[in-house]
Structures are given as C-alpha cells and as structure tokens.
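Deliverable D5.2: sample structural annotation.
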Amino acid sequence: MTAYLITDPKFYTNQPSFIISKLHEVFKKHEVNYACLRDKEAKNYEELARAFIFACNEFGVKPILHTFWLDAADLGAYGVHFGTKDFQNIPLAKAKNLFVVASAHSLHEAEEALSLGADLVTISPIFYVENKNKPLGLEKLKEITDKIPHKCIALGGILESSQIQMCKNAGAVGYASIRYFLK
C-alpha cells in the first residue's frame, strides 16, 4: 500500500537542518513512498524545499511540493500536490513532467482532478480531524474507490495501523497522514 507522508510546520518547523533531521528519523521508522512538503507560509521556502528534496532523495522517497508547481519543476522535485482551488494548474504541472496529486473531498472533485491529468487523488477527511470538515467515512471512501479504482489515497485522521487496513479494505491504494508517521 502506498504511504504518503505530509509535513506540517508545527511538527517539522521551517528550519532546513531540522526538517532534514526529522525526515531522517521518520524515514528510518516508516516505509514511505511519497513525501509532501506542505508549508504555505515559510519565508525561506526555496531553502526549505531544497533541504526537503535532499532528505527525500537520500532515502529513495519521491519528494512532492504542495502548491508550488513552478518551484517543484525548477528544484527537481518528483511532483506537486494541488488543493481544489488550484486544479487549473494540473495541466501546466503535467506539461513540466511533474507527478500530480490532487486533494478531493467528493467523487465529483476526484473525477475533475483526474480528468485534468492528476495521477492520484487524496480523498479526505476519512476519519475525524479537529478543525476539518465532517469525516466522509469508510463507506463514502468505498463508493469513490469503486468508481475510481487504483487512484485514491485515503487522508484525514489516520493515526493507527488498523485505520490503514480499513482504508485498504475500502479500496484505497494508499494512505496519507501527518501524525501517523510521527509515532
């Protein structure tokens, strides 16, 4: 099952040396296929992205930058992750040969992202996450994965291995999390 780590500045900071150290720690504990640098407010984003990409490459993890598709192409990241407000950039990122992950919260959004060229979609939130929308739940995840097999990664509130298994049973090809990988 595909494992997709997403960073959060609360846990990884915006200090390049710290993010390298923290990613080394996480990658030694967990098998991770993709990692996404999600920090929309870092004043030193390029420096942080370079450190993130370096750490990912050291461990054979495919580095993905959140939203910043031009930076992703210029800095040598594997791909980019778009939120729903940035779907119009999916074809532009694909033209730069970037792997594209898109956030979706419904079947309609997932289908739209895939029709524009996204390689994978995260479906969220599956489980409860404080300050997020009401969880979609496993039944809705299954409805979406039945219509879009092999393209959906479960996201949101995944903290335990048992939840990963439940998402797999619901048809997800992978799982994404911030906090699961910090354990």
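Annotation notes: The first strand starts at residue 2 and ends at 6. The radius of gyration is 15 Å.
The annotation will be released with the project's public dataset once the embargo ends.
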